[in-house]
Design brief:
By secondary structure, the chain is of the alpha/beta class. It contains twelve helices and eleven strands. The chain has a domain of 143 residues: Nitrogenase molybdenum iron protein domain (Rossmann fold, 3-Layer(aba) Sandwich), CATH 3.40.50.1980. Strands 5, 6, 7, 8, 9, 10 and 11 form a seven-stranded mixed β-sheet that branches. Strands 1-2 form a two-stranded parallel sheet. A two-stranded parallel ribbon has the order 3-4. The longest helix has 19 residues. The two termini are 33 Å apart.
Length: 274
């Protein structure tokens, strides 16, 4: 959705598998509220009749569609080609941003895509040329059963931290045999690997944004012993970030400012927990 918005082509999207309440991209939410975009059912149970009646030319699906292959097959039987969007498999943040060029080809807006990508790179070049700060950053969220979900060292979030001038704190703890870019660990293991991190960032995109540091500490009393907690360097990621496919340049800039400024104001996707 964000990639189409960046190409000024949101009007090309007529149906979505997320209802209005689930969108954090304001333009998508508004389009649904005004009837310019319609909810066509969840990806696993779409309204085939509605989709067919709309004259849909292309169905863009996330890799979640592979969990229900019969849906993809049915759409193709109805004569609707299916494009499986695999940007989430990109391990490098700049690689994720480059997916705008694919949609530009479909929309005939290659020049606009190049201009957008170049504008993002112009923001980042001054940061990428700086020496690494050496400051360590842990990125995590706590699941409903008390486990800690972290990113592996090859994940795009870990690489974003590195591009921003930081060091991913859990780079030696995040390897296992699965193909997933995240993993769960017990709080005690996370404590051992991250308690001395200079900064910790809580991923609120899963269970909602936190309003205070106390809310985070209620999730685990062990967190109060973390260096970042003691020094006031606890940050939270806004819940809209993972719908904002085009935002990674701004996320990297936010992390860089977090690392290099005493009290950064006006960050786009990060806020301090106090």
């Amino acid at each position: 959705m964000a990639l189409f918005r960046a190409l000024d082509s949101l009007d090309c999207i007529k149906m979505t598998g997320i209802d209005a309440s689930g969108w954090y991209i304001q333009e998508a939410k508004q389009a649904m509220e005004e009837g310019r975009m319609t909810y066509a059912g969840k990806y696993s149970a779409p309204d085939y009749e509605l989709i067919l009646a709309s004259g849909c030319d292309l169905a863009v699906e996330s890799t979640m569609i592979y969990h229900t292959p019969e849906v993809k097959e049915q759409l193709e039987k109805l004569g609707i080609p299916v494009l499986v969007e695999r940007s989430s498999y990109e391990s490098h943040p700049l690689g994720r941003m480059e997916w705008i060029k694919l949609y530009a080809v479909l929309l005939g807006k290659e020049e606009a895509a190049e201009a957008f990508f170049d504008s993002q790179m112009e923001k980042l070049i001054p940061i990428l040329g700086q020496e690494n700060t050496g400051k360590t950053v842990a990125f995590f969220y706590i699941t409903s059963n008390g486990a800690v979900n972290v990113r592996k060292s090859g994940d795009y979030i870990a690489k974003s931290i590195s591009l921003a001038g930081g060091v991913y704190a859990l780079q030696d703890l995040t390897a296992d045999d699965s193909a997933m870019s995240t993993m769960n660990m017990q709080m005690e293991e996370f404590y051992a690997g991250a308690k001395d991190a200079d900064y910790i960032i809580y991923n609120s995109t899963i269970d909602g944004e936190l309003g205070s540091l106390d809310e985070l500490l209620k999730k685990s009393t062990l967190l109060k012993d973390f260096k970042a907690v003691k020094e006031g360097n606890v940050w939270c990621l806004t819940k809209s970030m993972f719908q904002e496919t085009t935002c990674l340049g701004d996320v990297i800039m936010d992390i860089h400012r977090m690392l290099t400024e005493d009290d950064p104001e006006g960050l786009t996707y990060l806020y301090r927990l106090e």
